[in-house]
Amino acid sequence: MTEPETPSEPAANSAVPEEAETKAEVGVGPWVGELPAGGHWDPDLLADGDRRNVVDKYRYWKHEAIVADLDAKRHNFHIAIENWQHDMNIGTVVRTANAFLAKEVHIIGRRRWNRRGAMVTDRYQHVRHHATVEEFVAWAKGEGLAIIGIDIFPDSVPLETYELPKDCVLVFGQEGPGLTPEVHEAAVDTLSIEQFGSTRSINAASAAAIAMHAWIRRHVFNQLPG
Q: CA of 109: how far to CAs of 81, 82, 112, 168, in Å?
């Protein structure tokens, strides 16, 4: 008995179905039906469609209405990142801070930062600049926020077993140098993230995401560390 024939692979230059080439559109088109009532709706978006990178709840909302709604329920933690050499991670950190609804993101050092990684989330996330570490520390103390550094130092304690305070600012150094000695000294504690591979450290943006989620688990889902 002969083996059944295996279907041949399509030729490399065979035509691709037209529907496969069509990219899915982002967002939604113009509003269909009777227009909704309320001051938070954007007339232009209702007429033309909403292609922004926002969750469905905020489709067709005015930008200022979205920010106001987010402001009403932001969490108690802040994020700070040092920016002495134009750290490319800042945009990603801002995007993650928006996802976890941080109160504010603080840029310490150079004012300019690469916004590409933020994917326009900086329009919805409050970002504050501090020219120096001293200025940032004075602000944090004035707000009653515990400064928590995230880095690998001899005196660092594990994030996984640490009781994160509800009102705090999590501070990250830039890629490579890490936290400056000034921030290390000002921090109530410095936390490290347990790793199990061969590398000594992980990307600053990844570390920020892990630390933010640790705060969310503790203070939103009431999961105790340990």
A: 9, 6, 9, 20
Average pLDDT, the chain: 90
Is residue 119 within 8 Å of residue 90, measured between CB atoms? Answer: no
Helix (H, G, I), strand (E, B) or coil at 48: helix
Per residue in 7-19, pLDDT (tens digit) is 444 444 445 454 4
Query: Which residues, 6+ apart, have CB-to-CB distance to 158 below 8 Å?
Result: 191, 192, 193, 194
102-126 pLDDT tens trace: 999 999 999 999 899 999 999 999 9
Structure tokens at 126: 């409050």
| Closest of 98, 58, 56, 53 to residue 75, by C-alpha | 98
Least Cα distance to 133 among 187, 88, 90 occurs for 187
CA distances to 29, 52, 139, 166 from 80, rounded to whole Å, are 37, 26, 12, 16
107, 81 contact by CB (below 8 A): yes
The pLDDT, as a whole number, for residue 54 is: 95
Q: What are the pLDDT digits (tens) for 159-206?
A: 999 999 999 999 999 888 899 999 999 999 999 999 999 988 899 999
Residues 6+ apart with CB under 8 A from 87: 81, 113, 174, 175, 204
